[in-house]
């Protein structure tokens, strides 16, 4: 098969040629946009799921849907070592510019508030290079979103941005990837601001994406967050959707898979979108002709697995210290032990922390530092009290293969 015509796209956040299995989410978001445009109340949206299920791709697709309706949009990626003020200010700056408000004075007023909100992050007497400069020429607006209390400031900032959008009959949407990495104060402020905007009826929403424990992070910050956001679990694709993700791009290039090849691909990928793209690319490159067969899949599998081992699994494994790697391997072994007692190894989503401690022959309390470090690095998450799970699908299999 011609590698130049290879249609598959295994990249972080890169949109696949066929966005299969996400029609329900896209349709629901269209309803949200229409309701807000007509002055109807709507909740902000939170997407959750493991790594590799396409949360970032879907987040970008939702943003595109908002742009097509003339909304002002901005996107940021949360980081554990960074506060919310500067990246959010950049996102809102872009959103305000996209609105196309006809009154420059009103636009400058909001831009001045955004600038004040961002620069409040700088320490008193900070040097000029340390003062955030977003390219906003409007003068700083004193006394608005600059109190230093992130919760108060964010409510005022969202109110002003939402009001500007309401003037032109549009909306503002802020998209936040890796939302679980926001600091506790920022999470609390974001919940409070979304609550205030919802009550005031302003056309503004937040669309967040994060790991499966994100709802617990939000709930720990504000008890009413369970009613504040609409939660959508993004999971692996079913068989029919996975087949479409492979077959539709191939058909565009006048190629096809036979039935056995599609079955082999689903068995290898488990329906995870990132794996589908990785295997699809490898199989296309080794297949001599169309239709692609199960034999082609078998030949390409080692290449796909090597690529995943280096770029998807290995890069994360290398971030762990030796002690943390020991904990990760013990998690994989604990899952095997549960499988030997009758559970299906491929569907075990989490293991008790007590089982991990038993594998290592240590007390659970002594393993807390390693577990907490892995949680902060985003390699594992707490599925529920007393249980943990990998944030990356098939990570246990990768560790066992090593």
TrEMBL record:
Which GO molecular function annotations are given, in alphabetical order?
A: ATP binding; electron transfer activity; heme binding; metal ion binding
* Source species: Nocardioides marmoriginsengisoli
Every copy of the Cytochrome c domain together lies at 166-317
SUPFAM superfamilies assigned: P-loop containing nucleoside triphosphate hydrolases (SSF52540)
The UniProt annotation puts the region (Disordered) at 1-21
Pfam families, alphabetically? Answer: AAA_16 (PF13191)
Q: Does the record's keyword annotation contain Transcription?
A: no
Q: Which InterPro entries match?
A: AAA_16, Cyt_c-like_dom, P-loop_NTPase
Per UniProt, which keywords does this protein have?
ATP-binding, Heme, Iron, Metal-binding, Nucleotide-binding
Name of the protein: ATP-binding protein
- Highest taxon above the source species: Bacteria
């Amino acid at each position: 098969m011609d590698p130049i015509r290879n249609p598959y796209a295994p990249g972080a956040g890169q949109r696949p040629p066929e966005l299969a299995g996400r029609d329900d989410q896209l349709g629901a978001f269209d309803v949200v946009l229409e309701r807000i445009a007509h002055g109807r109340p709507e909740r902000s949206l939170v997407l959750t799921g493991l790594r590799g299920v396409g949360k970032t791709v879907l987040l970008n697709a939702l943003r595109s849907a908002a742009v097509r309706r003339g909304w002002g949009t901005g996107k940021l990626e949360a980081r554990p070592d960074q506060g919310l003020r500067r990246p959010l200010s950049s996102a809102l700056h872009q959103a305000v510019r996209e609105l196309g408000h006809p009154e420059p004075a009103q636009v400058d007023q909001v831009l001045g508030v955004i600038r004040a909100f961002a620069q409040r992050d700088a320490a008193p007497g900070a040097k000029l290079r340390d003062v955030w400069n977003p390219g906003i020429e409007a003068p700083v607006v004193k006394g608005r979103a600059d109190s230093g209390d992130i919760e108060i400031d964010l409510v005022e900032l969202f109110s002003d941005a939402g009001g500007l959008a309401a003037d032109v009959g549009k909306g503002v949407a802020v998209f936040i990837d890796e939302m679980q990495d926001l600091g506790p104060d920022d999470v609390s402020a974001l919940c409070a601001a979304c609550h205030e905007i919802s009550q005031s009826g302003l056309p503004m929403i937040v669309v967040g994406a994060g790991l499966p424990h994100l709802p617990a992070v939000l709930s720990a910050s504000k008890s009413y967050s369970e009613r504040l956001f609409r939660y959508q679990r993004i999971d692996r694709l079913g068989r029919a959707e996975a087949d479409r993700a492979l077959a539709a791009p191939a058909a565009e290039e006048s190629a096809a898979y036979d039935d056995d090849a599609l079955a082999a691909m689903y068995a290898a990928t488990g329906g995870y979108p990132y794996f589908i793209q990785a295997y699809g690319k490898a199989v296309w490159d080794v297949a001599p002709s169309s239709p692609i067969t199960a034999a082609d899949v078998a030949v390409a599998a080692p290449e796909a697995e090597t690529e995943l081992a280096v770029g998807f699994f290995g890069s994360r494994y290398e971030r762990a210290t030796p002690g943390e790697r020991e904990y990760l391997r013990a998690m994989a072994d604990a899952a095997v032990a549960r499988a030997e007692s009758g559970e299906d190894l491929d569907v075990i989503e989490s293991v008790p922390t007590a089982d991990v401690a038993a594998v290592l022959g240590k007390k659970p309390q002594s393993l807390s530092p390693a577990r907490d470090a892995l949680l902060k690095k985003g390699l594992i998450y707490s599925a529920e009290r007393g249980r943990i799970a990998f944030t990356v699908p098939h990570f246990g299999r990768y560790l066992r293969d090593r």
